[in-house]
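Title: Request for sanity check on Glutamate--tRNA ligase prediction

Description:
We are preparing a figure and want to confirm that the structure record we downloaded matches what your pipeline produces today. Could someone re-run it with the sequence below and paste the raw structure tokens into this thread? We only need the token string, no images.
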Amino acid sequence: MSKPPITRFAPSPTGYLHIGGARTALFNWLFARHFGGTFRLRIEDTDRQRSTQDAIGKIFEGLQWLGLDWDGEVVHQFSRAHLHAAEARRLLAEGRAYHCYCSPEELTQMREQARAEGKPPRYNGYWRDRDPAEAPAGVAPVIRMKAPREGETVIQDLVQGEVRFPNTELDDMILLRSDGTPTYMLSVVVDDHDMDITHVIRGDDHLTNTARQTQLYLALGWDCPIFAHIPLIHGPDGAKLSKRHGALGVDAYRDLGYLPEAMRNYLLRLGWGHGDEEIISTQQAIEWFGLENVGRSPARFDYAKLDNLNGHYLREADNARLAELIAPKLAEAAGRPLTGPDHDRLVRSMAGLKARAKTLVQLADSARFLVASRPLAMDAKAAGLVAGIGRERLAALRAAIAGLAPFTATAIEAAARGLSETTGAKLGDIAQPLRAALTGTTVSPPIFEVAEVLGAEESLGRLADVLDGGRP
């Protein structure tokens, strides 16, 4: 391309940053970064009744969590309303727009009549060529654009290919409401022009809007940006994505325990591909991304794939970082702030813990035993393992490891193997009661490593809790 692209993400702050919007932002960000261009953020807050500061904050927070940094200042559309209105009045002065005095009741009647005649329900152009002198007294008009009535509006789309709209299907849209406020269609076109946006990448549900906006660009005498309409995201059943499929806010995925790098990778693969690659780092994505590899069919959201991908990134993540991420949840579960030794145990145990987890929530749940208050609560299976013969083996193992120095996984395992040889018990029959006593569960990282991480004092203390009620 002749110059670096300028893309934009332009959400309406009427709710959370949903997963479809996050993918749109990602594709715009990657396209700009791939070509050394600019990625802008615009908040389309013209709907003053539904736009909230909380929603704007959530959008910022969601983009920042995903690592999608924008360039320059954020543009707030509402602050530019006077500029939008000025362009509508220019079209009016040039004869490319006109005042329409139709009442809501008249518009309803037009739509009903069109339906009765088997036509699409739309405005019929009643005031398009009428003498303004016929205007009813005391009625504030809207300003409508004079859309072309013959021929076609053609969009050369980078994803969808050539898309044609008969102009007979596109009516004279409102540019300024009767109270003088601009409509979404006008505001978007003026803002994209003034921000020098070169590429508009958005969902294919905007295709009809693009046809109307193309007409408006031409009426204003401006060059159109290049359009790319990406297919929507559907659920696994092929139906439109809903909350039951995973249509949650980005903040919800963070709270569910997904890593931002995993979400970037997963959203990238929803409708875009690079050969058979599934694991794609952000740097690789920037290097490889192009709109030519966006498919035309709707992508399907799949939690199982997201979980597996997140599990991969957990295993690749720095242990200290993971410990910091799960520390607040563990402190809440423990009912106390975590200590330095707690953090040290978390980091030292992380290699074994993260190998079994697919989300940070699972990781935190599996690490709770490291910071749990004594005596540990035991699940039913664990309690069964430290009863009867299991209790006898546990007592024998405690005696064997009580004086170990250093208290290492290798030395503890050697003691357990020695006990296995002298008693004829399998190593697992000795290790499992130890796991139950030290973790309160039957699943954990390698238990001898767990004992080393807990240390001699804590490990022997937990054994004492089980064997003699905590008495030394």
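Thanks, this matches our download. The radius of gyration is 32 Å.
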